[in-house]
Amino acid sequence: MSKPPRLTLPSDARAYRLTTARGDFAVHEAGAPERGTALLVPGFTGSKEDFIGLLEPLAAAGYRVVAVDGRGQHETPGPREESAYALEELARDVLAQAAVLGGAGPLHLLGHSLGGLVARAAVLRDAAPFASLTLMSSGPGAISEEQQARTKLLVAALEAMREDMAGVWAAMRSYDPEDAVPDAPELEEFLRGRWLATVPEQLIATGRVLVSEPDRVDGLAAVDLPKMVVSGEVDYAWPVPLLDDMADRLGARRVVVAGAEHSPNAENPQATARALASFWASVDHR
CATH code at 217? Predict the structure, then answer.
């Protein structure tokens, strides 16, 4: 899971609820749309806080940045029905968010990890609202076999213990290596609180997506939209060579962020923000 570099918002950012035709979504927003707007979609077990490190530098580059909690994630409520979290439903949510955020210049879409699969599904459904698509640490289909095994165990635990999310958290953390536990108690408290606030059916349904999603790269390559693939130097969910190949197939810009692994947005946000701003600027001048 992504670990935000900090938990406090920049002084010029705000937290609010974005009202759309498909419900209200908890968001963090910073900046003004001088050069456009960026919609940031988080990954599995994630939330809008995973993008806190990007808000200030992207706002300084001239972009309105909106990071969202998806349906059933953290501070956005959702129903206790697995069907509500099918990939197509989540894609429709992104399109509803885009309908509200668009209009003030180009709208750039970014999805991290699972969020990349959601963003891809949204673009495949309707690319018209977007000026570009960035897939961050998100691959062509299902996650690696090793991570599939881990995710299947988690989904099985959630199916059996969905009314005891605290118990699932404790069991999950007991399998983590020592260096996976944050040094800062407040960050560990946040991660646990975010887990407890996330709807278990959301985690079950999206976990199944991660282990079963087919390769849809050819379909995405046919969409006339500038694309970028960003990752860290190491990725356990989708190996870096696989992401290199996906970028080639897409004809996408490829950026590897130094010193980062699966969450460059949190692990090296300054370098990640520079790469994003450079890509979006190139799109602005098409």
Answer: 3.40.50.1820
Q: What are phi and psi of 162, to 5 degrees?
A: -65, -20
The structural domain count of the chain equals 1
The edge-to-edge listing of strands for the beta sheet with 36-41 is: 14-20, 23-30, 63-68, 36-41, 107-112, 132-136, 227-232, 253-257
Q: How far is CA 188 from the centre of its chain?
A: 20
> Which residue type is seen at 282?
S
Q: Which residues pair with residue 105 across a beta bridge?
A: 103
- Structural domain includes residue 102: yes
Residue 206 lies in a domain: no
- Bridge partners (DSSP) of residue 15 are 28
pLDDT digits (tens, 9 = 90+) for 245-278: 999 999 999 999 999 999 999 999 999 999 999 9
Pair of tokens at residue 57: 């530098």
Taking the mean position of all CA atoms in its chain, how far away is CA 238? 14
pLDDT tens column, 175-228: 666 555 566 899 999 999 999 999 999 999 999 999 999 999 999 999 999 999
Please give the single-letter amino acid code of residue 124.
L
Query: What is the structure's pLDDT at 174?
Result: 77
Domain that holds residue 108: 14-141+213-284
- Nearest Cα neighbor of 277 from 95, 1, 34, 27 is 34
Question: What is the pLDDT, as a whole number, of residue 285?
Answer: 59
How many CB atoms within 10 Å of residue 180? 10
Rounded-to-integer distance, Cα 164 and Cα 26, Å = 24
Strands 36-41 and 63-68: parallel
Residue 173: the pLDDT is 81
